[in-house]
Specification:
The chain contains two helices and four strands. With about 80 residues, the protein is an alpha+beta fold. The longest helix has 13 residues, at about 15-25.
């Protein structure tokens, strides 16, 4: 059986905001991955940032401290393949 991992995905209204968010998270030493925005976030710029669920609180704080407010935020599960 595959193991399931929780992630949080942040959506942004513009590509500029998504890239600014990525920079803010990197400066805060929070691992993030730029991904295509999931449909669940609605109509957005097409880019989103994915962080581990355990880093979501710190990511929220880092984005807010940088004056950036995501247009959407969702939690989802990803399954890791079995070894």
């Amino acid at each position: 059986m595959s193991e399931s991992h929780a992630f949080v995905v942040y959506g942004f209204s513009s590509t500029h905001d998504a890239l600014s968010g990525e920079k803010l998270l990197e400066q805060a030493r929070i691992a993030c991955v730029t991904i295509p925005a999931p449909r669940e976030l609605g109509e957005m710029c097409g880019l989103a940032l994915r962080v581990c669920e355990g880093d979501a609180e710190a990511a929220d704080a880092a984005l807010a401290a940088g004056g950036l407010h995501p247009s959407g935020r969702i939690r989802f599960f990803d399954r890791a393949p079995e070894s």
